[in-house]
Amino acid sequence: MLLSIPFPSWLTPEIIPGTIIRWYGLMYVVAFGIAYSLFRKQVRERHFPLTEDAVAALFTWGILGLLLGARIFATIVYETSDIYRRQPWLIFWPFRNGQFTGLQGMSYHGGVIGCVTAVLIYLHIKHFDKREICDMVVAAIPLGYTFGRLGNFINAELQGRVTTVPWGMIFPNAQQLSTQEPWVRAVAEKTGIDIAGAALVNLPRHPSQLYEALFEGVVLWAFLWFMRNRKPFKGFIIALYLAGYGLVRFIIEYFREPDSALGYRLELIPNSLPVAQAHPLLSFSTGQILNFMMIIAGIIWAFIAARLPDRQVIRVYPDSKPVSSISAEERQEQRKNRRRLRKKLR
Questions:
Q1: Is the pLDDT reported for residue 140 higher than 60?
Q2: pTM of the model
Q3: CA of 81: how far to CAs of 70, 76, 87, 93, 111, in Å?
Q4: Half-sphere exposure of 6 (CA within 13 A, CB side)
Q5: Taking CA atoms, which of 34, 230, 258, 330 is between 20 and 30 Å from 344?
Q6: Do residues 136 and 224 touch, judged by C-beta distance below 8 A?
């Protein structure tokens, strides 16, 4: 009897087999849509003085920055060959050997850097309250991660380490392991996999994509959403997001197999264990190092934001109208007022 779960055979990366329309791309669209809707909900419930046009422009800048940052960062940090240095146009070229492959390789941390940079530039140009708006943005974002990680799961990529837990899953694209290794034979025997006469075997692995979908997505979002109207100062939700995501992802990385070409970037106690077998407590992957930096950044930002001027939170803006109730004439008048203000500031 198998003590693991076969990967669903009916799941394929393409929504319609044989076409270029993929679940992963659709999941990005769903994620952006959810974040946009949750941000607009906060704008309406607080009567925040932000027009529909400004909300749309803010998200356009953020999405473009995210995609650029995620792709460029992935090619710099996670690509071990020098193909993109020699042929930089391939960074955004979605074809390989005449086949449509999409943009294979997107870095979460690069996406954060790109999105933050683009949003801050837009807010600076428009003279909007950066801390208040960024608090609302990060409270809306994490639920979208759920769908991004579901996209990874459908692609059967970024799977976890080998495991013997009952919910371990046999991914079709996972690296097959030599049956000559004693630990491989032990896992196969414990999970009921017959390896008689086989040189290689595909063992069950942690469905780490689903762990991330649950904890980086649903759980983190629920916590930030609960705290959004209870924050003690502007910028507090940003700090919670940075430290919270960093902590959750740091822990989940122990269940996820690091890229074989990269392995562990930092080993406080050197070991020779295969990365598919175990993740020693004091060995840290690239993702864990970046997540630790996020935790530190969140803590530092919390201390800074708590001491900045104009840190008091306005729960509801009584002199403003919800975005949905502002007429076209009122939006035009607001634009004129902002132009007058910018001229005075100059």
A1: yes
A2: 0.84
A3: 18, 10, 11, 17, 21
A4: 8
A5: 330
A6: no
